[in-house]
Specification:
The protein contains six helices and twelve strands. The chain has 231 residues and is of the alpha/beta class.
């Protein structure tokens, strides 16, 4: 084999030892010499087996499900409780527009509060003209510091114009802003449906009662803030 030039971990060799015309550069080929790098361990907690597998330049240390559970138990985890509602106060903002739906949602919310031991005197219901007006009232109630959570109930049903999109988007962003600006959980319980049948199905029909679900969320969030996030 013809002599070649070494550059670190690779050699440059002519492809052939046959004579090469002087007016051309010789064709060059590369011969690589693999290098064994030091082994580095990687903690792969997402893998389930307990064995270790070597790879090129690294190894993967696998943890068992038992190890992961122990790690989870060692970390402090905060969560609200739906059974610790005693002493918590709630406000419910209800839109009067589409009242046939919002009344059913309100009834579902009140039934859930009662089921989870929230006293009637700890609940205030505030009526507003429509879902568009929910946000500003929810923020005002949150900033009053009288309530641990504000539940927002409304129903926006699609019509023949784009008015539906404007009201639905404004209601959602209004409730979100109310919670962020007041520092009190403001729960979104506004239905946005294509027709009246969809709304009725979600106000106590075959799809359940979204007012009841929102009330349960309000209890959990109020408990989380009151017992773990009160600074």
């Amino acid at each position: 084999m013809a002599a070649g030039v070494s550059f670190g971990d690779c050699y440059l060799l002519p492809r052939s030892s046959s004579p090469i015309p002087t007016n051309r550069n010789p064709p060059i080929s590369f011969l690589f010499k693999p290098k064994r790098f030091p082994t580095t361990k990687i903690d792969a907690t997402s893998l389930s087996s307990s064995s270790s597998q070597l790879g090129f330049g690294f190894s993967i240390e696998r943890k068992t499900g038992k190890d992961r559970n122990a790690q989870m138990l060692a970390v402090r985890q905060l969560t609200g409780s739906i059974t610790a509602a005693d002493g918590l106060r709630f406000a419910i903002v209800v839109a009067r527009f589409n009242e046939i739906i919002t009344k059913l949602l309100l009834e579902g919310a009140l039934d859930t509060f009662k089921k989870y031991s929230v006293k009637e005197e700890d609940i205030d219901v505030v009526w507003v003209p429509g879902s568009f007006e929910i946000g500003v009232v929810a923020e005002k109630l949150g900033k009053s510091r009288k309530y641990q959570a504000v539940l927002c109930i409304g129903a926006v049903i699609r019509g023949d114009t784009s008015h539906y999109d404007a009201v639905a988007n404004s209601a959602a962003s209004g409730v979100l802003s109310a919670g962020l600006n007041s520092g009190v959980p403001c729960i979104f319980g506004v239905l946005t449906c294509d027709d009246m049948d969809q709304a009725l199905n979600r106000a106590g029909g075959k799809a359940g009662n979204k007012g009841a679900e929102a009330a349960l969320t309000a209890i959990e969030m109020a408990s989380l803030f009151e017992h773990h996030l009160k600074f």
